[in-house]
Write a structure and sequence with these properties.
The chain has five domains: about 60 residues, Helix Hairpins; about 220 residues, DNA ligase/mRNA capping enzyme (D-amino Acid Aminotransferase, Chain A, domain 1, 2-Layer Sandwich), CATH 3.30.470; about 110 residues, OB fold (Dihydrolipoamide Acetyltransferase, E2P) (Beta Barrel); about 90 residues, 5' to 3' exonuclease, C-terminal subdomain (DNA polymerase, domain 1, Orthogonal Bundle), CATH 1.10.150.20; about 100 residues. It has about 650 residues and is of the alpha+beta class. The chain starts with a helix and ends with a helix. The radius of gyration is 29 Å and the shape is globular. Helices cover about 35% and strands about 20% of the residues. The structure holds 2-(butylsulfanyl)adenosine. 2-(butylsulfanyl)adenosine binds next to strand 3, strand 8 and strand 11.
């Protein structure tokens, strides 16, 4: 084929393939079979290989491929990527005669309306897609980059990964704004997610927890060839920097996206009143169950964009939008038994073993019962029909019993008797701390405790140790290689490669053959252990699993200290902790007012003490003033951190 003919054929093939991508991904239909599509694609690849000069940036062949990156470049967002304020649907027990479940949303609407001029009273309602945010920048119609949200200011450059999504064009029509930063959600359809997990199960790989988790894991891949095999999609819902286009309303923006062939959600409403807002969110609640992807809420926005600027934003959220979160879905099923899980601090948690039940997209067969007090308070018995609730990332929980369905055979449950007074993992004694409801295993060398510590240590928000799945963690502990998460740093890749993992449970219920970890995975794990050494202090603090020191407190602590050394000599922590103790004392020892005059010496002492403490609190506030420490790092966290460091 001469170059002229080749060029004509390439142009035709590119056009055809783009058309079929469009049909498939935007309209959900297919005009040709997968086989016919592949043969067109192969033909295009062949001609382009023979005539590389014909390869254009936006050829369908260029979407996949590229080489694996070493790390993601960082992109600084020209406009900060904010999150949205959550407004929750009321729970049954919160609804009284004069409120309905949309009460909080209607209040938000009223409050926002008050600040808007009378010609700007329209709001839009659309589904909140349960995915991972992305920002894509087009300049002079050409795609420049795609970035994750990151910390809102800076994100990872995931351009290669985003280009594997066939609905994302590398160039836009010529009338696109000169600077056009569009934002949306990357997600996986529920069915595609289930299919992906099935395939992974057959390959002996770990399962993704839910579609969002699978999407987030996919976007983190450095190799776009891995990403191209994962069924991710995108829907655009907002924007960052736009130049060269007079954008007036959300409605107009959505139409404009559609004109540019960029995917938007089909479900969209414009509302004029509180009544219409209620109808819209109720309608969405009933419609969303048949959506192919997960959504747990509605996003409500002021339609007029001019008003967005005048309303402004807090440090976290814009004031012109909110996310209305529906109550988590519930289901009823039978409680067949209770098993005990030993957590990383040794706490024994009773877990309900249930008849499997399908709730909001996934099958639930276990749910937490929290602790003995909760079991007693809700009077939960084995054999009962129970109500299960699934809320976002939190593990499903048993909410209450359907007492009408209780059988005479239902049996009460007592944790202490059930475990015979011993830890079910290591047989050591268990005890209950004063004022606490939970039973705890007393042995810090308990394998289940170490395993849970290890899993936490390597978790996504901690040190992100790739390859430290459940089966690997289990083997490391049972073989005695790891007694403390820090032992991970002494492991050698060769030693890990030879490690024989226990058979894994497959989806079908069967078990896989025992397998060695292997060189490749061992290397990946040791490499990510090395990388962890350079992770920021906040991640390390969080990873240590210090009681009461969660992600936000760790971040705030790391913001005000440079190293572990500095933390262990910190006067800031001492001051916050002291202030908290004094505040508690003052609260618990109220001073009687002066006109009730039966002053005893003890109440005089108390009033003097209270005065001194209050003065000291003022002094501490002054000392801490310059650090501007947020309430995320409170007295409980500081006390706990000090105790940990002293030990
Ligand atoms: S508008 C200022 N619309 O939810 C942020 N966001 O929890 C404007 N999200 O950051 C975003 N569906 O990543 C918008 N229909 C939708 C959305 C949506 C999902 C995400 C988005 C946002 C996050 C906030």
């Amino acid at each position: 084929m001469d170059i002229k003919k080749a060029k004509a054929r390439v142009t035709q093939l590119q056009k055809e393939l783009n058309y079929h991508n469009q049909l498939y991904y935007n309209d959900g239909t297919q005009a040709i079979s997968d086989g016919e599509y592949d043969s067109l694609m192969n033909e295009l690849k062949r001609i382009e290989e023979l005539h590389p000069s014909l390869i254009t940036d936006d050829s369908p062949t260029q979407r996949v491929g590229g080489t694996a990156l070493k790390e993601f470049k960082q992109i600084s967002h020209p406009v900060r990527m904010l999150s949205i304020e959550d407004i929750h649907e009321l729970k049954e027990e919160e609804i009284s005669t004069d409120t309905n479940s949309e009460h909080n949303l209607i209040e938000w609407h009223k409050k926002t309306l008050k600040t808007l001029p009378s010609n700007q009273e329209l709001f839009t309602v659309e589904p909140k897609i349960d995915g991972v945010a992305v920002s894509i920048m087009y300049e002079r119609s050409k795609l420049q980059y795609a970035a994750t949200r990151g910390d809102g200011e800076t994100g990872d450059d995931i351009t290669q990964n985003i280009l594997t999504i066939k609905t994302i064009p590398t160039s836009l029509p010529n009338n696109a704004p000169s600077t056009f930063e569009i934002r949306g959600e990357v997600f996986m359809q529920n069915e595609a997610f289930e299919e992906l997990n099935k395939i992974r199960s057959k390959e002996g790989k770990t399962q993704f927890i839910n579609p969002r988790n699978a999407t987030a894991g996919t976007l983190k891949q450095l190799d776009p060839n891995v990403v191209s095999k994962r069924p991710i999609e995108v829907i655009f819902h907002s924007f960052g920097l736009i130049d060269g286009y007079d954008l007036k309303t959300i409605e107009q923006y959505r139409k404009f996206l559609m004109e540019m062939n960029l995917p938007v959600d089909k479900w969209f409403r414009i509302i004029k009143s509180s009544a219409q807002l209620r109808t819209a969110v109720l309608e969405l609640d009933s419609d969303r169950h048949s959506f192919p992807y997960g959504t747990d809420g509605a996003v409500i926005k002021v339609n007029q964009i001019e008003a967005h600027e005048s309303l402004g934003s807090t440090s976290k959220f814009p004031k012109w939008a909110c996310a209305y979160k529906y109550r988590p879905e519930q289901g009823q099923t039978i409680l067949n038994g209770v098993t005990i899980q030993v957590g990383r601090t040794g706490v024994l948690t009773p877990v309900a073993e249930l008849d499997p039940i399908f709730i909001s997209g996934t099958t639930v067969s276990r749910a937490t019962l929290h602790n003995q007090d909760e079991i007693d308070r809700k009077d939960i018995r084995i054999g009962d029909t129970v109500i299960i609730e699934k809320s976002g990332e939190i593990i499903p929980a048993v909410i209450k019993v359907n007492v009408d369905k209780r059988k005479l055979t239902a049996i009460r449950f007592d944790l202490y008797t059930h475990v015979n007074g011993k830890c079910p993992s290591c047989n050591s004694s268990i005890s209950k701390d004063d004022g606490f409801t939970a039973w705890r295993c007393n042995d810090p060398n308990c394998p289940d405790q170490i395993m849970a510590k290890l899993k936490h240590f390597g978790g996504r928000k901690m040190l992100e140790l790739e390859g430290l799945g459940i089966s690997v963690a289990e083997k490391l502990v049972t073989s005695g290689l790891v007694k403390n998460p820090l032992d991970l740093f002494d492991l050698k890749a060769e030693q890990l490669a030879e490690m024989e993992l226990d058979p894994a449970k497959l989806h079908s219920g069967a078990t896989s053959k025992p397998r060695r970890l292997g060189q490749k995975k061992a290397l990946k794990l040791t490499q990510s252990i090395q990388t962890a050494k350079d992770l920021p202090l906040a991640r390390w603090l969080h990873a240590l699993g210090i009681p009461n020191l969660g992600e936000s407190a760790s971040k705030e602590c790391a913001r005000t200290h440079r190293s572990f050394d500095e933390i262990s000599n910190s006067s800031i922590l001492e001051l916050i902790s002291e202030r908290w103790e004094k505040e508690n004392w003052v609260k618990n020892n109220p001073v009687k007012s002066k006109n009730i005059t039966n002053d005893t010496s003890s109440s005089i002492d108390r009033s003097e003490q209270s005065k001194q403490f209050k003065n000291r609190i003022i002094e501490i506030n002054e000392l801490l003033q310059n650090y501007r420490i947020s309430s995320e790092l409170g007295g409980v966290a500081c006390r706990s951190l000090i105790t940990y460091l002293n030990s």
